[in-house]
Request: fold
Amino acid sequence: MQLHQKTLPNGLTIQAIEMPGTNVVTTLILVGAGSRYEDLSLAGISHFLEHMFFKGAEKYPTPKSVAEAVDSFGGEFNAFTGKEYAGYYVKSGAENLEKSLDVLSDMLLKSKFNPEEIDKERGVILEEMAMYLDAPMYQISWDFERLMFGDQPLGRDQIGTRELITSVTQEQFFQYQKELYTPENTVITLSGNVNADTIDQVAEAFQFPSIKKSRELLPFDADLPTKKLSLRKKKTEQFHVSLGVRALAESDDRFPALKVLATVLGGNMSSRMFQHVREQKGLCYSIRTQVDEYTDTGLMTTRAGVKLDDVLYAVEAIRAEYDDVVVNGIQASELEKAKNYLLGKTDLSTEDTENVAHHYAKNQLLHHSQESYDDWKASISGVTQEQVESLARELLKPENLRFAGIGPEVDEAKLEALIS
Reply:
């Protein structure tokens, strides 16, 4: 695997990652344009704009023509909006790279944001919002973020507000695009059957207007007061729980230790949470401890769907695993097992051109870093038992714990006592 990178005079960074042995190419465009760039009046515009890029531009003027252009060569075509960036990609055979670039450049540089299409898409996004509200496995993560970060951009979900969805205008889309979809705020990464010459081909396809980024990511207020728990009452067959803490930024030197800690706690089927809460106590089907990382902060949470009659018992069991790692630490064998698991998962991810493109594009866009997979593996390999245990003691203090739940009514006082 070899990285070629060039930053053009206008600030656009283009990467080409050669992956021998494949005829596939993923073309990924990442733009620093997520929900952390939105004040409350614009909450949801990044996500809505992502939808609108698929609704017609110059060469492909209708949603159908955009879709048919990629369907005609069997490509995979999608987009996503996060807190700190939005992404657009086509995955195809190498012989269709020119067509992929043609479609992506047209939609991102020449979109019309037709008012009729905007009105149609309002209903689509409102239905997407309803889908998430009906799916506690999705909603629980947003509820937890809102609980942990409070009423600020980092605490709001990307889909935004009903007010924005029903009122946003074509003019606002053009203005937001002008403020953030600029060459210096964009990284275009291609991975797979590409080489250094591919960079010039991409540069020719993407002729950005000469404008500068004029909207900045909104800062995170770490001192904003937050509640201890959040409960959403809903008739469900399971009670969905999320118990966790504010953690580290991805750029923190201790971030690899955080990944190891989360893996020990609940990162796989042999982890403590899976073995003790699911296998031994039979309290849930799915349980996992995971890390959500941002440029200036992060989260570590354990999420599960538990039996309705055993909510308090399940929360107590999860809390017990947190307390045990604080008081008694971890075993050397657990450390090595978790590190080897992460190293193995890293190797597996290098087989997918989409994963590889995302790895390099994200590091460049958010951190101006060219960290390779070998660099990341070296960081994981260097994690020590003392680093993991020290981090557990720092993060998993009772005063740091927060809890979000979705399901039928539960004894709130007893629940709060369990996490205090």
